[in-house]
User: Fold this.
Amino acid sequence: MKVLILSCNTGEGHNSCAAALEEECRNQNIPCDTEDALRFISPEVSRFISNWHVRIYRHAPGLFRVGYRAAEDHPAQFHEGSALYRYLTQGAEKLCGFIAGSGYDTVICTHTFAALMVSEVVKTHLPNLKTCFIATDYTCSPSVKDSSLDRYFIPASSLSGDFLGGGITPERLRACGIPVRQMFHSGVRKEDAKRAFGIPADHKHLVMMCGSMGCGPIMSIARRIGRDLPDDQDLTIVCGTNKQLYRRLQRRFYDVKNVHVRSYVKDMALLMDSADLYLTKPGGISVTEAASMRLPMVFIDAVAGCEEYNKDFFLRTGGAVTGQTPKEIARTSLRLLSDKDALEKMGDALDAAVPHNAAANILSEMSEAEEEEKEEDLA
Assistant:
C-alpha cells in the first residue's frame, strides 16, 4: 500500500488530521505523502480560498454561519454537473497524473473538496484506486454525499444516520473516530506539564484558545475571568496567528501574575496536559484532541456552521458545557475549575464518547479492503 493523503488549507483541522495519518503511516512503514488538494486546481486558487476562509472565520463568523446553512439548504449546488462541482473538480486531470506517476494505490481525503476531486479521478481515469473520506467534524458536511469513495470514516456510530443517503451505503461507513497525533496520547503527568509552563503544580489551570486564528469573544471572556481568578488558579490564553489579539491581551494583563498570554504554542499537547479545563470553540479536531486527553471543555460558540454540530455532540456526552454570553461562559469556567468531582465526571464522559486509535484503525480498514480486492481478483 502506498498512500496519498489529500488535505486543504482551510483551517488547521484538516491538516492536523492529515498529519496524524501520516504519522501513523510512518510508524507502520507505509509509504505516504500529504498534498494540498486545491493546488491541483492551481496554487493561486489554493491561496485565494485559504486566505478568504481565514478572513471570514476571524472577522465575519456570521457570514460563515449563513454560508454553511445555505450550503445545507441547497445541496444541489454540489451535484455532479453543477458549476461549483465543475470548479472544484477541474484539478482532477492533473491530480490523476500525479497519482499514477507516483504509484499511489490508496488516497485518503480529509476534506470534502478533495473527496469530490478524487471521485472524479476514479470515475474517469482510475477505477481501481482505493479511496476514503475522513469526516473531521461531528456531522455530515455539505457535498460529502456527492462524492463516491470506497469508505467513509466517521467520528462515532451514533452519527451514521446523518451520512446515509446519496451513494453512501451502510457497508461503506466505518465509525473509527477522528485521527489525532500521538502527542495527544502521551499522558505527561499534569504536575510536570504545569511546571514546564511555569505554573505551580498545585494550581488549577484553565487554558483558553479559540482556534489557530484566534476568533470569537476572547477579550471579553478573558477580562471577566481575569478579574475574578483566585490566586491559586492560572489562566493561559493562546492567540494563535491573531497578532492584534495578542497585543491587546498583553497590554491588558501585563501585570497580572496568574494570567499568561501566548501567541502560537508549538507544543499544544503539553499545554493541554497541563490544563484542568479547556475553554475553546468546538472545532472538530481540537475537541477530539481534548477528548482523547479526557480534558473537560467549556465551549465558545464563535463560528457555528459545522461547529454547532460538534458542540451539540459533546454537550450530549456530558464532557462539555457552554454558556450563552461571555459573562455566563466566564462564570461557568470559574465554577468548574473549583469543582474537582465535576471535572472528573466530565473526563470520564469524554473517554467513553469517541473511538480511540482512529488513525491505526483507518489504515487497517484500508489495508483489509486492498487485500479483499486482491483475493477477488485471484478468485
Summary: The first helix runs from residue 12 to 27. The chain has a mean pLDDT of 89. The two ends are 21 Å apart (CA to CA).
